[in-house]
User: Which sequence fits this backbone?
């Protein structure tokens, strides 16, 4: 029996495991997925949580049990991956050693606020992020209480996953404050180290055309998002 080991049960890992479990003969392949988390998150939903938009309000709107997206033909091991010994084709985990014939790495990426001077200390005070579930929920109150001043949407460093999400955030903030009738009291600035907001040229042109026009989510933006 050959062994396929997938490290990470997020979007990438669960998709790879599910697709391959349908393509590879069951009698010949054993597919195992390892993850340390208890929950699988639909991360694009984090974007809407600070604004409590479109039914995204708290944990239940984006989280489900980590095992749930995985098909029944896929084995799951709840463990922290600690070491990959590729020469020996083994992975050390908190639940013991796992060997493999093929390895898929899908452990995602994490935020690193400590790499930006001052950001670590400011987070949760006057700097907030929506790139994590708890952080997105904790952002609700400060946003609700913000009545005037300057909101800077800052991409602190590159790379950033889903580079369009911060831009979407800026437009959602525009919409949010407009609906509350306080938009004219708030200046929204978008700051990024990237030369262009998106790698797609037409997306960049479209976004540039929206900036400064006071655009907010409408049929045009939803067409763009599709
Ligand atoms: C706010 C936001 C908006 C987004 N919007 C979009 C969008 O509109 N469209 C889009 O396509 N993408 C979007 N994305 C990006 C998308 O969510 C990610 O690209 C995707 O989740 C990445 O999948 P992944 O499997 O690589 O990593 P993840 O989904 O992060 O999964 C990684 C998994 O590995 C596990 N893991 C990590 N380290 C270990 C370890 N040592 N041991 C065991 N397990 C471990 C984690 O627990 C996790 O379950 C968005 C992301 C964010 C944050």
Assistant:
């Amino acid at each position: 029996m050959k062994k396929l080991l997938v490290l990470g049960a997020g979007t990438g890992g669960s998709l790879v495991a599910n697709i391959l479990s349908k393509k590879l003969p069951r009698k010949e392949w054993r597919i195992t997925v390892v993850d340390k988390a208890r929950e699988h998150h639909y991360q694009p939903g984090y974007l809407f949580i600070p604004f409590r938009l479109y039914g995204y309000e708290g944990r239940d709107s984006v989280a489900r049990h980590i095992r749930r997206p995985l098909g029944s033909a896929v084995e799951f091991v709840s463990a922290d991956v600690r070491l990959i010994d590729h020469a020996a084709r083994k992975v050390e985990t908190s639940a013991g050693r796992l060997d493999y014939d093929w390895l898929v790495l899908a452990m995602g990426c994490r935020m690193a606020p400590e790499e930006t001077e001052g950001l670590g200390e400011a987070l949760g005070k006057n700097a907030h992020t929506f790139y994590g579930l708890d952080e997105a929920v904790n952002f609700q109150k400060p946003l609700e209480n913000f009545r005037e001043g300057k909101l800077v949407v800052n991409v602190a460093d590159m790379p950033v996953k889903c580079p369009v999400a911060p831009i979407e955030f800026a437009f959602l903030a525009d919409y949010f404050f407009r609906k509350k009738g306080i938009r004219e009291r708030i200046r929204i600035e978008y700051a990024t180290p990237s030369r262009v907001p998106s790698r797609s040229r037409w997306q960049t042109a479209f976004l540039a055309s929206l900036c400064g026009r006071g655009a907010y989510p409408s049929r045009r933006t939803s067409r763009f998002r599709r």
User: Anything to note?
Assistant: The chain is about 25% helix and 25% strand. Confidence is low (pLDDT under 50) at residues 214-226. The two ends are 42 Å apart (CA to CA). The chain has two domains: 2-105, 146-225.
